[in-house]
Amino acid sequence: MSIPTILVIDDQATDRLIYRRFLGEHYYRFLELNSGAQVLEYLSENTIDLILLDWQMPKVDGLETLKAIRRGPDYTHIPIIVITGKDDSESLELAFNFGCTDYIRKPVDKIELAARVQNVMELNKSQETLIQQSKELLRLYKIIQDQKYTLEESLGFKRAAIEAHEEKITAEKEILERDIKTLSLQISKTINHVRQIKQVVQELLNAANKNGQHESIIDGLKTVEKSINKIISNNQSNLEVKRIIEISDKDLNRKLLSINPKLTNLELRHCNYLNMNLSNHEIADIMNVELKSLQMSRYRIKKKLQIESDKTLREFILSI
Predict the structure, then answer these.
(1) Predicted TM-score (pTM) of this structure
(2) Residues with Cβ < 8 Å from 69, sequence gap 6 or more?
(3) pLDDT in tens, 131-150
(4) In which domain, by residue range, is 66 found?
(5) Contact by Cβ (8 Å): 167, 187
(6) Is the pLDDT higher at 173 or at 245?
(7) pLDDT of residue 194
(8) Quick count: other Cβ atoms within 10 Å of Cβ 14?
(9) Fewer Cβ neighbours under 10 Å: the N or C end of the chain?
(10) 3-state helix, strand, coil in the chain (%, to 5)
(11) Quick one: 56 exposed, middle or buried, by C-beta within 10 A (0-12, 13-18, 19+)?
(12) Which of 79, 108, 137 is the last residue in one of the domains?
């Protein structure tokens, strides 16, 4: 482990020798200058841990030497102890104003010199440690900020992708729901038309039987009736599927149940059919009830939902 290097700047060789002996050459490495004239050149060629600077020297005195060292940024970190024979406060004020770290009055005491040098060394070492720690903290802070920015950017891309995927699913769901409602309406209309045809066929059959029409006509009408019954049966199965799909309109059901949790599944189905904008006849056919029963059911639902008397259930359902 290398020992600290002290630069002694003093025009008196005897004083320089005293300082070396007081401090101990086995504890410190000493370099010497008898003037401050070449101090900057000397500092540029050597690594110095502390400077002992005599205040009163011929030619370039301690004040000018101190100014020269502190003028640039390269040597501001080196602690400087001024050694002076002056006892006036003005000189000390000048020394501290231009950057000296500490001072000692002559004649120099051995214990005081050793203590001041050791204290200044330890203080300077602590300051350098703090500076290095601050630099390291700044470096780590920059790394954290960079990682934070990268993470936020990555999360932003993922969030945008998730939102785009959700929008796509929502759009596809809306299209599917529209297609289901269209299909359901077509099924309902088909059933009504087929039932009307069946009624006509039945009337023709009754008339043919009554009037003794030709058997081939009666057989033909019966064949038509069987086909109609088959269509009705198939469409009735489709209606059951439609009912299951319609009742799964969770948004509408959730809104209705938040108003009155006691709504039955049948009443929720009724509201869903209204939301599909089906006619009263179509809803009656799908639910297999008479129009009168449908009106009574609608009255009960209005009461449960506390709908104003001047507003129809259909208007209320389509508005929420």
Answers:
(1) 0.47
(2) 39, 40, 43, 51, 75, 78, 80, 99
(3) 899 999 999 999 999 898 88
(4) 5-108
(5) no
(6) 173
(7) 72
(8) 8
(9) N
(10) 70, 10, 25
(11) middle
(12) 108
